[in-house]
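ASSEMBLY PREDICTION REQUEST
Request ID: AP-0331
Submitted by: J.K., bench scientist
Number of chains: two
Total residues: 838
Priority: normal
Notes: Please return the full assembly, not individual chains.
Input sequences:
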Amino acid sequence: MRATRDHLGRPLVAVTGMGVMTSLGQGLADNWRALTDGVSGIHAVSRFPTDGLSTRIAGTVDFLDLPLQNAVERSYAMARETTIEALAQAGMSSDFNGPLFLAAPPIEPEWSARFALADRAGPSQKPDDAYDRFLAAMRERPDPAFHEAALFGAVSERLADRFGTRGLPVTLSTACASGATAIQLGVEAIRQGRTDRALTVATDGSVSAESLIRFALLSALSTQNDPPQRASKPFTRDRDGFVIAEGAATLVLESLEAALSRGARVYGILKGCGEKADLFHRTRSSPDGGPAIATIRAALEDAGLAEDAIGYINAHGTSTPENDKMEYGAMSAVFADGLAAIPVSSNKSMIGHTLTAAGAVEAVFSLQTMQTGTLPPTINYLNPDPAIVLDVVPNVKRDAQVTAVLSNSFGFGGQNASLVMTAEPA
Amino acid sequence: MTQTDSTQTDTRQAGRDVVITGIGIVTSQGVGIAPHRALLTAPVAPEPVVELEKLAPYPVHPLPAIDWSQQIPKRGDQRQMENWQRLGVFTAGLALEDAGLKDDTDACGSMDMIVAAGGGERDIKVDSLIVDEALKRNDREQLLNEKLTTELRPTLFLAQLSNLMAGNISIVHKVTGSSRTFMGEEAAGISAVETAFHRIRAGQSTHTLVGGAFSAERADMLLLVEAIGAHSLHRWLPLWSRAEGEGGGMIMGTVGAFLVLESRAHAQARGAQIYAQISEIAGDRGLRDEGRMERRLERLLEPAKGEGGETLIFSGASGMVALAEREKSVLDHVLPGAALRAYGGLAGHSLEAQFPLGLALAALALQCGARVPPFDPAETAMAAPASRAVVTTVGHQRGEGVALLVAEAQEA
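STATUS: Completed
Returned structure:
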């Protein structure tokens, strides 16, 4: 009988179902085909006018039918679709009956809702009284839909009902590491022995004029608008910021023991998770990469793997000047001379930065890399940054069998999380 | 942060009981433990502190007089935040100080953190400017681009981001073992403590900072609650008597509540004070009609049943009239004879911070052997100090949670 416990005697955690959606399309098959063909999903924004904005491109998901055009409906719909796909792959058709961990974007009322309130409220009586008027309008006629659309718990509520998850779902935000954190919470719950399975979902459909402008004001976004598909160029000399994007991913996690006993197909093992917070700055990483280094090392230690076991790294690789430099420094510190022999690619060169969803989207692609023996490329790698010496799988996919993958996620607020995934058999 | 398996281990043997060793608390009743210990041990409950004018017709329990620099020494750090984040960072500092870990670089550097956060603090001036201008124009989306580009302060975005309360705690207090932010109103607070509890019990964490903060004096937050007509209007009433007033029954309160949770072994090894042990905690959700909410609450309260001396219930009831009545009738039925205290009557309702606040008050009451005075005419006096405390939170829209705390004296 094969081992179902890890080096520390904990239950091994298997991935038995995956679903994904990005600007490249819906479903793992379509996404993987485009991703390995080096296709970019980045395009000019059509959701709202971009005249006068310095950034006019994004990787929005525009092909879904939504009952209402807002971030909650979009984030929910994407999470629902990727979960349907993941559960089908896992061969689960009844109530999920395990906990739900959801990475979801912080949401606020849409501007259209504020304008509608202003239209039905009285005119301004004194400066800065918009909210007094909104409140008066709400007293006249409450609007439960407005309430629900601004509650952070609304998306997980609908997912919990739709898929029959158990207990109180966790909705979390660790900025750009959120997707990885959701997976980590699922792994921890299974290791605690509280459940045999966990549904981990990450979704972000929050691109709007305000979200784009906010990131632009922090100088975080690429302004290389033309052509859009060339803007995201991780690890190059002329990278100038990330491309904001949308996406979602769902992973069905099960204890390997439970997965095997029900005869489920195992797509990979979530072998280790690491995290370490950064205290340097609200939006910038410690220049020495200390917390990122500690995060990667913690993930390797948790996985019980040495540095030389890692065969491929799915980089955070945002295409911002700072992240790519810092991430390279951190990888160099951990893998030393061995780094030269490890291919490192950035999915964000094609799908942009799916923010809250990125960690989970990229975990799915990491697992698929091992499943298919194909490394997705880093596209737009035409002008390498001479200070970053990496095998980025430049521009064209590559065949390579790898059995252990590291995936990094780093975010605003000092958030760092890394995942180590291994091929089945573990 | 090396994780070990705990599945079948006896947590007591392993010293993995979860104990509360630090409390940070700010309400309209005051800053820190002293005013709250005083109110819990007073012969009669204090008068609620209510601001009636500033956001009329909505009464709110306001931020007390507070000197931010006591916990956030750098002006530059203070300026990077709005009051919601400031309050969380301040209160987290109080909890660390109370636990004796404030300046312990190693302990903070390996400390885990789970923050229950809302977010989305709006710039009322900018929003007003935009909607007023929009009333005169047809090209509203174009107007948005112009005004947001020129009027938004870049730092406001960071003050709005949910996970930046935790981010600022890392920066100001150097808590960096891990940093996770949970969202989702009251349920976020329940899940935060529940997750920290299970991680410690499983040996995945030895010490965790957990809590949240809520700023009630925000028109944008009041708007959310007014969208379902849930505010009490014009005046304060005792929580269990809100049906007599105008409006839906909720009075929001500015609150910061943080706890330091540790495994008993970790706490004992460093000789830490222990307020109380958390022996059980669970949350759930679902439809609330046809007695479903009552059945869930009864199941969550199951571990609190039975013998064990005087029981004190800290109910986090939001004040929403029908929900409060339903919760009270379940509590009266499941735990007859227990002393019920609805702390939201004194502190207000604080969404994400509500459940952590209940745990903070319960731990404090158990530790000082308080005979907590009734907060409300519908509550009865205690004959003796409690040996156990039940904390409940029923979310104003969804989510329910219950924790059971046990006094240390009985454990010895």
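REVIEWER COMMENTS: The CA atoms of residues 48 and 346 of chain B lie 5 Å apart.
SIGN-OFF: pending second reviewer
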